[in-house]
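Good morning,

Attaching, inline, the backbone tokens for the sequence recovery test we're adding to the shared suite. The designed sequence is right after.
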């Protein structure tokens, strides 16, 4: 298979089945990060991921890491922590601060470049990208963000500045998402952290089949309205 150079004159992507096996799932380069192109990519199971100074790279891994929200792994220690959690968890209260937090809290450097920040902020303004915030008092101590595709949520990144903050964000979001008809979370590539929370790998073909089915579904419109998902005072 060869790497495809995208044209700025068309939004078309090559089939994910043509993605290179090594590095895992690299499909194309170039194009732009316009909302229309990003949405076209997510609709086909493709996402951008590239380092500062590199061209835009587009990926569709095989296998794909996913998490069914009702299969979130709640360890005994996390269960004890959450019962007396000090955190207030909100939805869509501070998207820009969350994505900046994800960019900053990386010892190994970040792929969340200025162009990524701007592109996903535009997706958020258009109602396609969403954030979950974890607060300790008035301090933002963790969060996550991603892009919705019907009843599927494509998780992009998370960060934590306090004990169990990102785990708390994912736990509370999974419960609310499932209760409102959400069916699957895309974790892209499996790592130790997401595996410990219940994520597994499935073949890309199976993921694309799930994506095609779940894109046609929808959550209640009010679900994405900024609100409190969890409060220790409830």
């Amino acid at each position: 298979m060869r790497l495809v150079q995208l044209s700025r004159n068309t939004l078309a992507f090559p089939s994910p089945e043509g993605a290179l096996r090594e590095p895992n799932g690299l499909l194309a380069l170039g194009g732009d990060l316009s909302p229309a192109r990003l949405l076209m990519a997510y609709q086909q199971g493709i996402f951008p991921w590239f380092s500062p100074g590199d061209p835009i790279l587009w990926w569709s891994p095989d296998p794909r890491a996913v998490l069914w929200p009702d299969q979130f792994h709640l360890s005994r220690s996390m269960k004890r922590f959450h019962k007396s959690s000090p955190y207030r968890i909100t939805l869509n209260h501070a998207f820009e601060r969350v994505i900046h937090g994800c960019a900053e809290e990386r010892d190994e450097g970040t792929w969340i470049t200025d162009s990524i920040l701007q592109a996903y902020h535009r997706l958020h303004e258009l109602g396609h990208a969403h954030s979950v915030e974890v607060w300790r008092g008035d301090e933002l101590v963790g969060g996550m963000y991603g892009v919705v595709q019907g009843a599927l949520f494509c998780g992009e990144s998370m960060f934590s500045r306090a004990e169990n903050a990102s785990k708390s964000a994912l736990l509370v979001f999974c419960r609310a998402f499932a209760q409102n008809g959400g069916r699957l979370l895309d974790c892209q590539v499996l790592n130790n952290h997401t595996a410990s929370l219940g994520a597994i790998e499935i073949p890309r073909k199976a993921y694309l089949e799930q994506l095609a089915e779940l894109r046609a579904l929808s959550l209640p419109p009010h679900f994405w309205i900024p609100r409190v998902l969890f409060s220790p005072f409830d």
